[in-house]
Amino acid sequence: MTQHLAAPATATTSGHRAEPAPWWRDAVIYQVYPRSFADGNGDGMGDLAGIRSRLPYLKELGVDAVWLSPFYASPQADAGYDVADYRAIDPMFGTLHDADALIRSAHALDLRIIVDLVPNHCSDQHDWFRQALREGPGSRLRERFHFRPGKGADGELPPNDWESIFGGPAWTRTANPDGTPGEWYLHLFAPEQPDFNWEHPAVQDEFRSILRFWLDLGADGFRVDVAHGLVKAPGLPDIGSGDQLKLLGNDVMPFFDQDGVHEIYRSWRRILDEYEGERVLVAEAWTPTVERTALYVRPDEMHQAFNFQYLTTNWDEKELREVIDGSLAAMRPVGAPTTWVLSNHDVTRHATRFGNPPGLGTQLREQGDRELGLRRARAATLLMLALPGSAYVYQGEELGLPDVTDLPDEVRQDPSFFRAEGQDGFRDGCRVPIPWTREGSSYGFGSGGSWLPQPAEWAELSVEAQTGVAGSTLELYRAALAARREHPGLGAGEAVTWLDAPDGVLALSREGFVCTTNTTGAPVRLPAPGALLLASAPVAVNDGFAVLPADATAWWTV
Ligand code: BGC
User: Fold this and answer.
1) Which of 422, 476, 508, 518 has the most CB within a 10 Å radius?
2) CA 557 – CA 296 distance, rounded (Å)
3) Residues 168 and 255 reside in one and the same domain
């Protein structure tokens, strides 16, 4: 067990020692996608040793914690979200020793490590599922999953009409041990990802034990995958509407956001609370409303939930203001911090989303207007980092990386692309390994190429190319994160005050600080609210007036 990070108590003006707010309430958490961050052994695939070697970069960037997407033993049918062994590292990422060393090194730098927990489903190569298949219908070992006989005269039809999030039926028929067609099993995602039956005590016990395993190793918390999916409506009722699901959409479904999930998280919270060091649970919960999301972060459940309503908001003043207000209001009654996120490994990078027309969703195959996208992305980031609560940064967004929208189909690996027959599931575009240097194999990602091809123009977007360059996106992120540490008004608290501003401009005030965002495509002149602290594009200030360029955010101290 590694030494745990303890927050120092702060001295108040009266001389008393006040308990500091827990670290996660306003933390900036950086998502590392292990396949694509840094390759330590030159096999073209990122790994734990690579991540460890780049921790000083993350420290210098100024983040508080690192969330690692799955690195467990897995056949990689869904890039590691199909786990065969929750207590082992996939050899392509390293060993348990590497995981331990990574956590220790991060702690030595005062960085926290959040690991990804995948409880809704496992891999079809997980021992439990293989045993269940081997034992055949009627076996108690099948009760840990959702096995059902099919409908129709010979059981040739799926048990209900549920569709997989990745396309096609959510059921796959098995063969009996004697080779005859057998029962069906449920998989909300790929057929290689059978859903656990969370009514079963063995499943509940197993995950409590997995939590302890990683907590004992020093993990600071868990990002809980598909947290809204574990419990299914009793009887697995048909949906009936024939509606197709959107990838990871917010639809109301009998397999999502069922009230029963909350009891599971309460029991997990009790476990985390036994450990020192403010460990956290973060819900990946796609729910119909922010109010439903707030239920996951009640005081005895998780600590944070991703704010997907914010991620899916268009670059529009009114929509942004509405979602900011709505998010803050929804979290207030439960006392949880709001979170903000613009990109992750499942959606088109925001530098590309914002360069496309609004309303196209999160799976884009068009590059759109690259310059516009980057301009808005930089502005959106400064807006996000000015809001109260915790913010998530997805690897490479600090370089202003666009999505790679023109990957040849033959290199794609996202299972949803294949299940949707190439009409959806473009998640590989945000998973291309990131560039560290201008030259070299895979631009410094590793010495042996990269598992997805990187565009040649990424040389100029590399960490090396942007370091020390005034106005580069990397330096903007570094400056913003440094300012967030220096100015307590940024990130802290639970509310914003909106100020009067010209049409298309968001102006919000926090303690000692104002953030102005011009969402329009033209410069806007407005009274300078204070001293310019940082801006996503050059701001001219003259005679008490400022000209905020098109699609730009400026921070002011007042
Ligand atoms: C993860 C995805 C994954 C899915 C199934 C998600 O929400 O973020 O990358 O494909 O869960 O595990």
Assistant:
1) 518
2) 35
3) no
Tokens of 468: 């020390």
Q: What is the distance in A from the centroid of ligand 1 to the CA of 557?
A: 40
Q: Is 226 in the pocket of ligand 1 (CB under 6 A)?
A: yes
The backbone torsions φ and ψ at residue 355, rounded to the nearest 5 degrees and listed phi first, read: -95, 0
Shared domain check, 348 and 238? yes
Identify the weakest region by mean pLDDT among 3-17, 135-149, 523-537: 3-17
Quick check: 258 and 231 in contact, CB under 8 A? yes
Q: Which three-class secondary structure string do you get for 191-242?
A: CCCCEECCCCHHHHHHHHHHHHHHHHCCCCEEEECCCCCCCCCCCCCCCCCC
- Do 214 and 133 reside in the same domain of the chain? no
Same domain, 240 and 321: yes
Alpha-carbon distance of 398 to 477, in angstroms, equals 6
> Residue 488 domain-assigned?
no
Q: In which domain, by residue range, is 226 found?
A: 20-120+198-477
- The catalytic residue positions are 225, 284
Spacing of C-alpha 140 from chain mean position = 36
For ligand 1, say whether the CB of 256 is within 6 Å of any of its atoms.
Answer: no
pLDDT of residue 248: 46
Neighbours of 518 (CB within 10 A): 28
Q: Are 282 and 306 in contact (CB under 8 A)?
A: yes
Nearest CA to ligand 1 atom 4: 81
pLDDT band at 4 (very low <50, low <70, confident <90, very high): low
Question: Global pTM?
Answer: 0.96
pLDDT-based confidence at 5, cuts 50/70/90? low
CATH number where 552 lies: 2.60.40.1180
Determine the average pLDDT of the residues in 371-388: 98
